[in-house]
Amino acid sequence: MGSRMVVSTNSMVKPILLPGITICSLMLSIVFSVFFVLLSHPEDVSLRNIIINTYLWKVIKFTFFQAFLSALLSVLIALLLSKSYFRNNFFCNIFLKLSSTIFVLPTTIITIGMLMVYGRSGWISQFFNTIKFEYSFNPYGFNGVILTNVFINLPFAIQLLLRSIRIISSDQWKIIDQLGMRHLEYFIRVEWYYLKRQIVPVFILIFVLSFSNFSIILIVGGGPSSTTIELAIYQMINFGPNYFQAAFLTFVQMMCCLLLITFVQKINIFPMIENDYEELSHNRYCSHIYHDSIVNKIIILISIVFFISPLSAIILDGINVELFKILKDPYFWQSFWNSAVIAIGSSSLCTLFAIIFLWSSRELYFQKMFFLYRSFKMISMTLIVLPNTSLVISLSHLLNDFLIIRSPYPLIIFINALMFVPYSIKMLEIPMNDTFQYYNNLCLSLKITGLNRFFVIEYDKLSYDIKKSFVLSCAFSFGDISTLTIFEENQFSTLPYYLYDHLNHYCVKEASSTSLLMLFFYMILFLSLRKSFQKKYD
What we know:
By secondary structure, this protein is mostly helical. The protein is built from 23 helices and no strands.
């Protein structure tokens, strides 16, 4: 009986693997097509000239340095703040909700909020002018890049480190008190054991995110001295064109980020954010080490002000006379409609791709085909490390030249879906694996397979995670500015491009009002996810 069961499951492997193999083949073909497009343009330049090009190495050096410093500062500050928030339950809950909001917002809106606070005509500058002090901070260039990267990545790092501290059990806290441990001894002997497992992967993930960020550098980058690989690729293709140099930089970024992500997966401690609204239980015993203090409250208040001020600036500065003009502007509503159609279409396609991919990859894992399983995971990571600018431009060339697709909708929907597939896979991987493990024997005994298995057995358990993947990929697609490279030669516009166009023409009030409206749309998406969660768990 047992042998017949094994045979039956093995006979199911090939058809089950076909959907995942199809998605993997699509991903690999996209990667190869990027290099095919970039290298297919004949240029009078040799590889030797590219390797000795001082500007390229200056760009690579700046990209590494700003990513390293952003990751280092984010982790160090997160260590301090995670310990501070753990001491204060009230502010901790406020922070978790606030950080989830920051995580959903696109970098374009956050960067503009930072300029409203730290810019030459921002809130801090106005305050210093009032008290007759000179404000010398320059939000553009290296300083602005580091500040904005830290602001965006710090909440992510705090959440993960805070969860590590909360794992410490009540019994351990009692033993700590009985032994009379002091702060330093406790940190070295107990807390560090839980934190060290997250610090390395958190550092590497923030490094990769800062390394490959495009929107921040595009808005606050300070010219040739503050250009990263992503922005350099954009400039080389659009203003050069230097396709061969762009291919070289694409390869450098891809290899660097892929090696780092592979290292994180190798040590098997890839961090994941759990449900944002689920109350995490406090196992903390009331130890003297973590009693709240005045100094701790001051640290928390300063951090809360730091996180809230850009969002407050967007709301307060966005309410101006230009707001009503924008609401009457048909070009704004056309941009909004374009963004909404693209976001809904790409998030639907992205979530479908992720489900199809995981449907096959989990079979590999539970049938102990670990080499193929790791190969699937590695392929799914390639689109994360591939520069978005190269991906967008290459696919737009291919689809326009070979398939002759003139409508921008299918082009951008397909590109955005591919860009966010790895993130959807990461969100759905654990829930789909857990559901498979729990119901697999039942499905085999009742001979429920294929789509029947998904809709009859699994969908109800996965509905929240699928909705979460859809909403988050919808939010990311709605605010993505990478596709701006497609729009520059035609009249098709989305909200991020509409916003960037105002910034590019120094229309600060119009940009502020547009940011406010985009923030409002994002809050609707954010609240819809929360309502969906409450319906499931209330």
